[in-house]
Amino acid sequence: MKFRYRNFIEMQIANKLNWTNRSLLYLSRSFDNLHHGQDYLDIHSAIHIGFLDYTLFPEHPEFYATYKMSNMKNHHIYSDNFVLSVVDLTCIDLATEEDRLYHINDWARLFKATTWEEVKKMAQQNEYLQEASRSIFQFNTDEQMRKLCRDRVEYYQDLRNYERYIKQQDSVIAKLTVEKDAAIAELTAEKDATIAELQSQIQSLTDQLQNSPANREPAEK
Question: How far, in Å, CA of 92 to CA of 76, rounded?
């Protein structure tokens, strides 16, 4: 059986607060690979692999994670054709035995290398890493000018994302402020009502004491 799939690999160094939606968007575009008249059985599987230099979900740190569509109750996999994988370059020490078996940790260290000496040393481990190191070198020499253009476009895109995020946070803060003011007003009203009721009770007791027989002046004989 011949497996048909499309891989999409991307790396993000800084957490731009948009990875989940961004990866889903690119994966969906890659999965939409049928031409008019083709059968749905001819569709290619789509696999998006992200190398992140930060932890995507801090409450669930993991070196290599794979996500698929599955049943919420019994976790049965809906399809193997739509896959998201995330490699956390900051958690290489959490690599499992299976991760090391497939040299995923070696690829992570290759991407974390900061000098060409480190890259060359990593490349000596196998032919695939050697080919990747050559591609990285070629990419870095040929892409410098195009990178400047892409960086400009990404800068404005990220700026819009941050501005939208700040507006969302401002909206949340404004809503919380209104709720806080309403709660304070309600508590103040309850306090004033309680004080008024206590004052009324005190006045009533005072009147009763003043009108009691013990406090009346004796009649003159």
Answer: 29
| H-only helix segments in the chain | 19-31, 97-101, 104-112, 116-123, 127-142, 144-210
The two three-digit tokens of residue 37, written as one number:
């008249």
Distance CA 137, CA 131 (A): 10
pLDDT tens digits for range 112-149: 888 878 877 877 777 777 777 777 666 666 555 566 66
Measured between its terminal Cα atoms, the distance across the chain in Å is 125
pTM of the model: 0.59
Q: Which residues pair with 86 in a beta bridge?
A: 50, 65
β-pair partners for 85: 49, 66
The packing angle between helices 104-112 and 127-142, to 10°, is 30
Strands 82-88 and 64-68: antiparallel
pLDDT above 80 for 168: yes
* Number of other CB atoms surrounding residue 155 within 10 Å: 10
Which two three-digit tokens encode residue 98? 């299976």
